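Hey L., structure's done. Input below.
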Amino acid sequence: MDLNESHPVNRSVILVSSNRCLNLSSSKITTERVGIKAYGLLQLPEPWVPRFFVVSGKEKPSQDAIGRAAKKCGISDLATVYVRSSGTKEGIEERGSLDSWTCSLVEASQYIKRLAASPHIRAQKRIQTVHFIVQERVPSPEKGHLSNERRLSRHPRDWTVEFEKDGGMEPLGIRHWRDASTPSLSPLSCDSHPRITRALRAVASWAHPHRAHFEWIWDGTNVWIVQLDFLTQKLIGVTPKALVSQSKRAPIDDSNLKHFGSAKQEHFVSYRKLANARMYQELGYSMPTFFVMNDEQVMQSVIKDGVIPASLKDDLETLCSRPFVLRTDATDLQPGEREMLPRSDELRSADAAIQWLTTSFRSAMLKLESARNIVLMGHHFIPATASAWAQALPNKRRVRIEALWGIPEGLYYFAHDVYDVDTGVIDVSKGSRTKCKVILKRERYKGKFIAPSEEGDWIVHHTDEDSDWTGSITKQSWVQEIAWTTRLIAAKAGYPVVAMWFIDLPIGHSKHQVLPWFHDKWERPSDGYKSALQRKKRQSSQFRKITNRASWIQLQNDLADGVKVERVFISPEDSEIVRDRDFVLALAEHSKQNDYVVELSGGLLSHVFYILSKARCNVELVDLVGIKEEQIEYNKIVRDKIPEDIKSRGEQVEVVHLTGDALIEALKDKLLEEAFEVLDARTADSICEEVADLKEVVDALLRALDIEPREVLRTQEKKRAKRGGFKEALMLIRTSLPPALAEDLIEETGEPPRNIARQEQLPRPESDFHIDHRIDITGSPERQITLTMPAYINEYAAGNHRFDLATQSGERHDLFFSATVTRTSSTLKLRLRLTNSPVQLTLFPEEATLLASDGVDTGSPHTPPQNRKRKKA
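Output:
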């Protein structure tokens, strides 16, 4: 059903234009007149949306007209409002690229003028009309997103709720058989944080079956929708396998080649990329014929002069009669220079090869001044449906595989699948490919990949909906072969490796369906791996996306003009920057100079991540699945089927059987752990799950103690009759007992107790910190530090405290102490910091005299400079 039919605009809106206040009826409301953001709000049920009106971006508004519009909407003159952009082309892809401000209503016209005059809005006005929304501000102790974007869910019925405060995410499913009734269009009442997801269920049901993205806020009483983006139908994509030629190609006659020749034994020894191919042949793989050109005179002609000899052109005519790829290798390269050496696209003519040699190849090699023995290596293009990077260590069982449709360059920047495989053995001589087990599989939404076009250019393709969620390695045996062979490569190399693989090769082009192509030494990043923040609403000054060379230049220009950028996401729309090593190096340096984060969806095994990390760029990865430590100690009682479930994933487990007091003690510990899980649960659904877990432990504890459930019920009823339950929801704040002779007794008023509805209004748990001065049994002074806090506290900081302690020589010395406590479930982590006070040395006697004469109390020689006080005049 069309969106305008299923979710029409069915109410009017106030439009401010210059000094006029217009009442636009629903039939006159268009995205051109009010902007996409305002149009979306008008599609929503009115009780879900904070009151607002629209200010036309075509004329400067008067404050008087804004005041009249607010009055018509019921917005108070004293209200605080949001002023938000509403561009006529500001869809979900541009969300956050325009600006919003919070101000008082009487300042709204000034803020709109300021926004309209900003460089970014002025630039946007060249491509769209930017209107403004003035909306009543709602206090928001919590806010977030609700979305079923295809990148988040394969099916429109599956939604994700995101909480901005802590970055948490919760699933929300809409099912016809369960949610078939018409959703209520009344206010989204919600008086507690755990009920937010249940309130949002009505919103998701209202949007079903369309895909949409909502931004919501919660004020402690209601959930409000402040933005709606219906997602347009995805661009028509391509099936990756359809791009792969299945026809067998006839061999070429290479007998007349003058400069290129089939690779010889010395080439396989001298050049790493060919040495790799020799290793794969030793492992049983039939590799294609490699053609080598290392004629120094011809190479100098190409690189120094940009001239292609006629005899070289003849060679290229022969070799490019079938799609041909040229690669580069050299010796004496500096660290980091080998990665991303120039490599051509699929060359289908001599002219295309000459164009590449005299531009991309020549430009790159002129910058590598240390390169010696430069060689061009060519092979006929190997078509493959997908490709992968696999990482293995000689003495570790686990192998990580990152895979994506098309050629490996797509893994530099695009979302991909991850497979974590246990090969079962440390010593590869004792294992086999068939024993490998996939213990973790993360098949993600893969909206883009890189593959040849019909002309042979390697371009960015959009994936069709039949393939974007389908695993890029379609056979279990292929995963096993990639994992096992990569282990063998690491064992033969004697060091950790990352290997490139082609996947799903046509039978007419290779006798193998998966083929190793290249490997290099793998190094763990010195700064480790950082996970990118969950998406939050960002202003334009905080987030940018680089899609091509033009957007990269625009980013540099904007930062040079003083625009503040905190996060840059790399998502190429064309292949222009994909293999550009200079771009990656420049990006690393630029991010350090301007202090912004580079965010990648690509793989952690990719060259781009390696280069950025090596350059100490602050780079974060969108998905860090599968990089946790292999061995985890639990030492706690678990559900009966958990050990077998872990074994089925390829992990080894060690268990003991508990009886008697050990069982009872373990169940009591588990009871405490589950109680903390209930404490930390955010939504009603998750609380229901955690209470079920808690009850399971209670039932097990009763069985261990031979206590019948009815005995517990009898005790419960007796206690309820004597002391009541928790139906009245009363919190005891404090008690007091007046002395018998008190004259002014406080009389009870009979009024009901005050009501508290919001979590932040609850009394804070009491905590205490103090230092005791003591003397130990030897007579030496000591200090005893005591921290007191409730066990359920989420975090605690003792701050900075100073105390002195005598040294062995009898001198007193200042020490500084600080402590923080954080809780994760039932585990408390205490961090203590104890530092010596800095000693200020007096280099010259005159120094103290000058300080004193200047009014500074020099104190003792151990007094830190920041603690010295200026004397009163």
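Confidence is low (pLDDT under 50) at residues 535-540, 839-873. The CA atoms of residues 157 and 208 lie 7 Å apart.

-- N.
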